[in-house]
Design brief:
By secondary structure, this protein is of the alpha/beta class. The protein is built from 11 helices and 10 strands.
Length: 293
């Protein structure tokens, strides 16, 4: 027993260089047993769990070729899939950072996300052509504070709609959001009214607005501009609703129907006009905007 304790508490006489050599040797052994995969070469589907070549996912419009699960796409990739090449001009990409409640740590979080995502906010807005039709477009990002709508998100969308109204252009918004941004309190909720009023003026001018629901579209976004489209489209399997299913079940103390708040459920109950796959989205939007080939 004494010998065991003596060995247990025996002083380490290895130098730092020797320890480093041992660690490197262990890493090499582990690498031989378990070959590492370069970052970005393969991706794992969060639905079926399959490991898939990233190039195959990209070629399939960011859809899992095994189970047809839709991966979330960052805004500029979506824009490249919809807008004619070399026709897109981004707008309002440098709005002043806004922290109306002086929420602790909020500005630092925004700076960190800007650097991480290469986005200035949770939405990218601009103008471009879809099959030759000039259009105002906004694309939301789940990677920037879960697409939450604060002052600058509402401001960017509103300014894009107002310019489209002046220039007599249609508007397309691809929605993806967890709802209003809690760090901005009532100011975030005011964006619901602001964007809705801008769309009302756009509609009064006799112009078309197409809303596309992607996964997820919830909260204040769902309760405002997401559901005001002349045409409301949705991607397959997208979650769309005001409150999430778990919140509703806990509130009403009842089990919800299977597939509740999925785009398929919403289509069946008349909340959306059409479910459109990514492969067909560009031409479907162009057709609804009056495109003829």
């Amino acid at each position: 027993m004494k010998i065991m304790l003596k060995e247990l508490f025996k002083k380490d006489t290895l130098t730092g260089k020797e320890r480093k050599q041992i660690k490197n040797s262990e890493r090499q052994k582990n690498a031989t047993r378990n070959p590492s995969v370069p970052d970005g070469l393969f991706s794992k589907c969060d639905k079926c769990g399959e490991i898939i070549c990233t190039d195959d996912i990209v070629e399939n419009y960011y859809i899992c070729p095994k189970c047809n699960n839709y991966f979330r796409i960052e805004p500029r990739k979506r824009i490249s899939m919809l807008i004619d090449e070399n026709t897109f001009t981004e707008t309002d990409s440098n709005l002043t950072m806004y922290n109306p409640l002086e929420f602790p740590g909020y500005e630092d979080k925004l700076k960190s996300l800007k650097k991480k995502t290469n986005l200035d906010e949770a939405v990218v807005t601009g103008f471009g052509e879809i099959c030759g039709i000039k259009t105002g477009i906004a694309v939301m990002s789940a990677n920037f504070m879960m697409g939450s709508m604060g002052h600058n998100v509402g401001e960017k969308i509103t300014k894009m709609i107002e310019r489209a109204t002046v220039e007599k252009l249609p508007v397309v918004i691809l929605c993806c959001s967890g709802g209003a941004r809690m760090q901005e309190g009532i100011v975030s909720l005011m964006q619901m009214e602001k964007t809705s009023q801008a769309l009302k003026r756009h509609s009064n001018a006799g112009l078309r607005y197409i809303s596309v629901l992607t996964d997820p579209t919830t909260g204040g976004v769902m309760a405002s501009f997401a559901m005001l489209g002349d045409y409301i489209l949705a991607e397959p399997g997208a979650l769309a609703g005001f409150a999430g299913p778990r919140v509703i079940e806990q509130t009403i103390r009842q089990k919800l129907p299977e597939g509740f708040q999925s785009s398929e459920f919403l289509l069946e109950h008349g909340f959306v006009d059409m479910i459109v796959t990514r492969r067909k989205l560009r031409k479907t939007i162009a057709y609804l905007l009056g495109w003829t080939q």
